[in-house]
Design brief:
- By secondary structure, the protein is of the alpha/beta class.
- The chain contains 11 helices and 6 strands.
- The N and C termini lie far apart (51 Å).
């Protein structure tokens, strides 16, 4: 019965490409032309932070940043390159109520996180919004991704333990050094008993400089987390 109901719905309202609106075969997907414009991040990449390497670099190496300084996370992985094409999918989801993009982006998160899942994880935590930003935006896109990923991989999600305690300027308006200062000490774990000894996956939509993810990871490690991994849909690659 459900199968026939879905068939009828798809016949009356056929699925559409999330990017261009062209008719496609399945819900929450892209047409072949739009899919071909997505730049997936594949090996080789930095073993620690996931920064893509040029072809020919041996897999498992570290990038200069990870060699030169200690990172607060165990691994960081991203699914796709943040470019002019992928930007629309993410910004539509983040700012313009296109929550139908969530499932596609979550599937990409799941594929990108294979290293993290293989290493073991106990808890998923989204990068939080300050309550004033939450009121203005109506929802936290990272929390929505965390919920969908939790359903997909059967790892519980925690939306209450990590809080943003200080209002900051949007990171998009800051350069590299300003981003560091902007989010420094902006996050706090208010329920340390929930994260102590846990292997945590930190979820966000885009990795730009990593400043926000590092500050969140530091707060979680300070509260007793055993390890913190970062997983994002997209990454700025310069």
């Amino acid at each position: 019965m459900i199968k026939w109901l879905n068939f009828l719905i798809n016949f009356i309202l056929p699925p559409r490409c999330l990017f261009c609106g062209k008719e496609v075969r399945s819900d929450n997907s892209l047409c072949p032309e739009c899919f071909a414009n997505i730049n997936f991040i594949n090996r080789p990449y930095c073993h620690k932070c996931g920064r893509p390497f040029p072809d020919g670099i041996e897999d498992g190496m570290l990038c200069p940043d990870c060699i030169g300084k200690r990172q607060p996370f165990r691994f960081c992985r991203s699914a796709i390159v943040y470019d002019d094409f992928s930007k629309k999918l993410i910004l539509d989801f983040k700012f313009f109520d296109h929550i139908e993009n969530k499932l596609l982006l979550t599937r990409w998160l799941y594929m990108a996180g294979r290293d993290i899942f293989d290493a073991g994880a106990d808890l998923i935590i989204p990068v939080p919004l300050h309550f004033t930003r939450m009121i203005k935006r109506k929802y936290n896109q990272s929390a929505m991704l965390s919920y969908a990923l939790s359903e997909m991989c059967h790892i519980p999600a925690d939306y209450k333990s990590l809080k943003k305690i200080r209002r900051t300027k949007p990171q998009v308006h800051c350069n590299g050094k300003q981003r560091l200062r902007n989010v420094k000490n902006a996050f706090e774990v208010v329920h340390p008993e929930n994260v102590k000894g846990k292997r945590i996956i930190l979820i966000d939509d885009v990795y730009t400089t990593g400043s926000t993810l590092r500050e969140c990871a530091k707060a979680l490690k300070k509260a007793g987390a055993r390890s913190v991994d970062a997983l994002t849909v997209a990454r700025v690659c310069d």
